[in-house]
């Protein structure tokens, strides 16, 4: 028997201000091993969808199923469900005042009781596990004792990913993790996330720019709270795929890439990149 | 991406790898920020351990009656009318004392500003001199000023007003001077170089940036003035405080609660109103050092401040405050037979024990006041009704004068330092609790949410998501509060055996003026040293780690 899908949204709606729903009848199933890109113009409801998926936001109607089960009414059971879902936030949400090691251990808090949680604020706990986690994101173990506030931008991104992995979730959610990053860093971080999302895990990653679809299995296109595209990533190769993406971003700019990533001046004005295009080569590097 | 790491690696080599290098051995580090926040609450352990030995058995049923009376306050029209009259007097005294302290503080603050002296007269030493001199009135608690003035001019409405105005004025002066001298003088220098006369340049360059901090602090002083006016009442200077003490001593708990609930309503209305004004006029928060600019509400502010003038005169006339009464000194009552000054009588006082008691009391109360609120928030985090109850308990604690808490505790506990520390600590926990709640409301909930979304419980999410960011500013405010507490130890002197405070009240009632003066001087000296120490601690805490 096939395992239950990691995430299932059924006719899910979230009310918004002024009668315009933020999500409107969204159906979505994510199976183990799937790497799904969530595309859409700003305001399409990508962040709302991720907030519902990680349980931060309760839907106004419809159903969320985590591994086939609805969110439990029992507080502890619900927390156990949520512990299997990890989110990489756009602003990272690292705890600035704590050390890298303490931040990594914060990924274990749901599993730890009070004694360890308090001890973590006093002693370096699980040093070898944390060092291994840093190695997985290409950081030196010497960073463990550093305060997060002392890290560079790229290091912080990697520490945030390491914390996510330390939580060891089965469903990885990422809310525009690549926005405002330079292309090289964006590509290498994406490669890291894609590599970690092998079965039994799955990845749902929201992207503002449709030019980094390499390595994804599926693309969900969201517009005005509705799912407009739900197709395999390979179907976006060629001119037809570009046209479909342009349709998703209609009214936002001349081309999808034209409005993509304002921090990314070098790529401005280039056409949308289908899978396998030039500069994405870096994404496949270890 | 190794280049990112590689660039950093040499810098990391020494210190951090020596501490954490691959050995995996657990080395004790400095406690992290959230733990630092909970550290003061450890004082609860010895306190709770010692409490059973301090209890004297009796009084439990009285305390039960007191608690029951909270929900069944007396609604007798006579009681209500008397409580309202007392409240009006207290509020009036607070308002007058506050206005006088602001006027006084502004003048003295300008007079002790280094920037002002340098710009206007080209010399600095008068600023330093005035600053030093102002430390003395500031070091003496308003209760002491009140009791001294009471001896000098008798029971007059003006006594409470002046008692509040003197120390508060000196405090405001210090804040004004610090704010002024902390401002960037670039604009001032530019105006002076352009040939503007000193007064015009000072007003133009320093007035607008000074205003937000001043208004915010001024509003906060009004809350303090209301608390002080109530406290002075407890010691017989009139108003609701006097009623509260009398009803407590005669165990009329229902009438007591009538006054308390009214006071609570006024206090909360005042705090809410001032908070709204602060936000409306884009005020900086009291916690932390950031100072946003004042908004475009200048006209409103001027109108609000101008309306204070007729209000002040109206209230002054209504209360019968007559400044001339200050000039009519009464002869002091006898010097106990052996004359005015008696060296032996002075030396006979157990000075080390008195000072030691005062310091113990201060530290215990400070640890309790600083440690309790974060712990209470943490414990009550999962249950909204409990959170609400904690807030209510803070509001009651800060409006309920500490000497009355002390009297109430005496129903259960024996007199002494611990009882006094409990009374003082609980009162100040109410003040710090409100500040903590304010800081939390102003801060970002992002980290807390992020943790909650990974299945972390509400308590740990609060500890890891919220406490790290506010730990240092909160503790820095706590350091300042400890300094205030040292001054305040006198108000719980009446529970006995608590150091200088008790001795002071005793000397006062036996008209031993030489002892009294010596005690006030020692108190002032201790406070000055304490102020310096707490200032240093505060600066260290606010430094970026």
What does this structure look like?
The complex is a heterodimer of chains A (286) and B (545). Chain A is an alpha/beta fold and 286 residues long. Chain A folds into two domains: 7-84 and 169-284, 3-Layer(aba) Sandwich (Rossmann fold); 98-168, no CATH class. Chain A is 29% helix and 19% strand. Chain A has helices spanning 46-53, 75-83, 100-106, 114-119, 127-136, 153-167, 183-196, 238-248, 281-284; strands at 7-14, 23-30, 35-39, 61-66, 85-88, 171-175, 202-207, 218-223, 226-232. Chain A has a six-stranded mixed sheet with strand order 5-6-7-3-8-9, with helices on both faces. Chain A has a three-stranded antiparallel sheet with strand order 2-1-4, covered by helices on one side. In chain A, strand 6 (171-175), helix 7 (183-196) and strand 7 form a beta-alpha-beta unit. The longest helix of chain A is centred in the middle third of the chain and has 15 residues, at 153-167. Residues 255-286 of chain A have low confidence and may be disordered. Chain B has a domain at 349-545: MetI-like fold (Orthogonal Bundle), CATH 1.10.3720.10. Helix content of chain B is 76%, strand content 0%. With 545 residues, chain B is mainly alpha-helical. Chain B starts with a helix and ends with a helix. Chains A and B meet through helix 2, strand 5, helix 3, helix 4 and helix 5 of A and helix 1, helix 2, helix 20, helix 21 and helix 22 of B.
Please, what is the oligomeric state?
A: heterodimer
Outline of chain A: globular
Order of helices and strands of chain A: EEEHEHEHHHHEHEEEHH
First-last Cα distance of chain A: 34 Å
Parts with pLDDT < 50 across at least 5 consecutive residues of chain B: 1-28, 283-295
The number of helices of chain A is 9
CATH topological fold name of the domain at 349-545 in chain B:
MetI-like fold
Uncertain spans of chain A, ≥5 residues at pLDDT below 50?
255-286
Q: Classify the beta-strand content of chain B into a percent band.
A: under 5%
Write out the strand line-up for the largest beta sheet of chain A, numbering strands in chain order: 5-6-7-3-8-9
CATH superfamily of the domain at 349-545 in chain B: MetI-like
Q: How many β-strands of chain A, per DSSP?
A: 9
- The topology string of helices and strands of chain B comes to HHHHHHHHHHHHHHHHHHHHHHHH
| Helical fraction of chain A | 25-40%
**Percent of residues in helices of chain B:** over 70%
Report the sheet with the most strands of chain B, covering strand number, pairing sense and barrel closure.
none
Fourth CATH level, the homologous superfamily of the largest domain in chain A = P-loop containing nucleotide triphosphate hydrolases
- CATH fold annotation of the largest domain in chain A: Rossmann fold
Q: What is the CATH domain class of the domain at 349-545 in chain B?
A: Mainly Alpha
